[in-house]
């Protein structure tokens, strides 16, 4: 692809590195930004820079946050005895969009995947166990809301083994309203909401 400007070529190259953005789409976006008001392009650049350099992660649940503690963990109206364990912050967003869940979360940061070299120590699993086992812990139920893939099921099984001996802590999984091999972020809100509400408790 030939470009009339090296600056355009560089912009297209950077944009095309984003997931789902090919070079043609990147060129269309670059030309749109070039024709847009200067403030529009500057605002986009500033928002992206602030997101990258100023965003942090919640000290409790590891979700994306603007401060040391995210808004959900800091909310006293949420049910802190109920912890929903998810693999990624996108799953938090998906579940929140159902409007069905009023507990709090714990974001693992991925799933166990030996093929990709991701083991339990690479995830926020120890902090989950510590959170549930603490003397002053409010946790009474841990919901394993992990996508039902092979890696997701492996992760859920491992978590169940780590948590099953904790006194007064029940382990549940979301109902299989989510198709096998599917991802939570792509599930429709009705199916996902029903899966949370109709979760099944695992036998110890």
UniProtKB/TrEMBL annotation:
A zinc finger (C4-type) spans 58-73. Residues 81-179 form the Toprim domain. The keyword DNA damage applies. InterPro entries: DNA_Rcmb_RecR, Rcmb_RecR, Rcmb_RecR_Znf, TOPRIM_dom, TOPRIM_RecR. CDD domains: TOPRIM_recR. SUPFAM superfamilies: Recombination protein RecR (SSF111304). The keyword Thylakoid does not apply. Gene3D superfamilies: 3.40.1360.10, 6.10.250.240, RecR Domain 1 (1.10.8.420). Signal peptide: none annotated. Pfam families: RecR_C, RecR_HhH, RecR_ZnF, Toprim_4. Keywords: DNA damage, DNA recombination, DNA repair, Metal-binding, Zinc, Zinc-finger. It comes from the Bacteria. PROSITE patterns: RECR, TOPRIM. PANTHER family: RECOMBINATION PROTEIN RECR. May play a role in DNA repair. It seems to be involved in an RecBC-independent recombinational process of DNA repair. It may act with RecF and RecO. Belongs to the RecR family. This is Recombination protein RecR.
